[in-house]
Amino acid sequence: FPGPFTDVVTTNLKLRNPSDRKVCFKVKTTAPRRYCVRPNSGIIDPGSSVIVSVMLQPFDYDPNEKSKHKFMVQTTYAPPNISDMEAVWKEAKPDELMDSKLRCVFEMPNENDKLNDIDASKPAPVLNTAKQDGPMPKPHSVSLNDTETRKLVEECKRLQAEIMKLTDENRHLRDEGLRLRKVAHSDKSGSPTALALRDNGSNSLPSLLVVIAAIFIGFFLGKFIL
């Protein structure tokens, strides 16, 4: 049975009677819920043949699962007068029965078959280039992703360390600014202009550090997204 198995897959089984007598046949399977057989029994005239359609129902194919499905075609010579087929099989003796066993094989189409099934009228430059230059190289997306992830993690750790360092410096400068304010307030002899310059300098440094931290974070996020 060729895949894919998303729809009903039909395989024809040809039975031929090489004898000079009529032969009764019956088709059995170990998985009756998976298959639909038409006809599953009947009579074949001498020298004639019959086509039996075996229809596999859709299912989730697992390539690691070994198929254990089997079919058995059981035959016996037909009696002179046949009125009930079931009675023929019930009354048949074991030494009068003949059988042939068949094992089911599931095959999925390979990549070459998929390429051959593509409509030639549709442009496929990538596939054509691959055919001319040789076999397509195996993708290395997994290893590249792992390497890139490690780099991003290291970059993240470095940026986090930078942010912590800038935060500490910002806290230190803020404390220093508070100290200078206290000194300025306590220093009555200091000029108002000098005091204003001290305040502006202490306020601008934390703002500058916040801007630098924002630039680092934006650079990291942009690289991670790309």
Automatic annotation (TrEMBL):
GO terms for cellular component: bicellular tight junction; endoplasmic reticulum membrane; plasma membrane. GO terms for biological process: neuron projection development. It is a single-pass type IV membrane protein. Gene3D superfamilies: Immunoglobulins (2.60.40.10). Residues 149-176 form a coiled coil. The chain crosses the membrane at residues 205-225. It is found in: Cell junction, Tight junction; Cell membrane; Endoplasmic reticulum membrane. Residues 1-107 form the MSP domain. It comes from the Eukaryota. GO terms for molecular function: FFAT motif binding. Pfam families: Motile_Sperm. Keywords: Acetylation, Cell junction, Cell membrane, Coiled coil, Disulfide bond, Endoplasmic reticulum, Membrane, Phosphoprotein, Tight junction, Transmembrane, Transmembrane helix. Belongs to the VAMP-associated protein (VAP) (TC 9.B.17) family. Endoplasmic reticulum (ER)-anchored protein that mediates the formation of contact sites between the ER and endosomes via interaction with FFAT motif-containing proteins such as STARD3 or WDR44. STARD3-VAPA interaction enables cholesterol transfer from the ER to endosomes. Via interaction with WDR44 participates in neosynthesized protein export. In addition, recruited to the plasma membrane through OSBPL3 binding. The OSBPL3-VAPA complex stimulates RRAS signaling which in turn attenuates integrin beta-1 (ITGB1) activation at the cell surface. With OSBPL3, may regulate ER morphology. This is Vesicle-associated membrane protein-associated protein A. The lineage of its organism: Eukaryota, Metazoa, Chordata, Craniata, Vertebrata. The gene is Vapa.
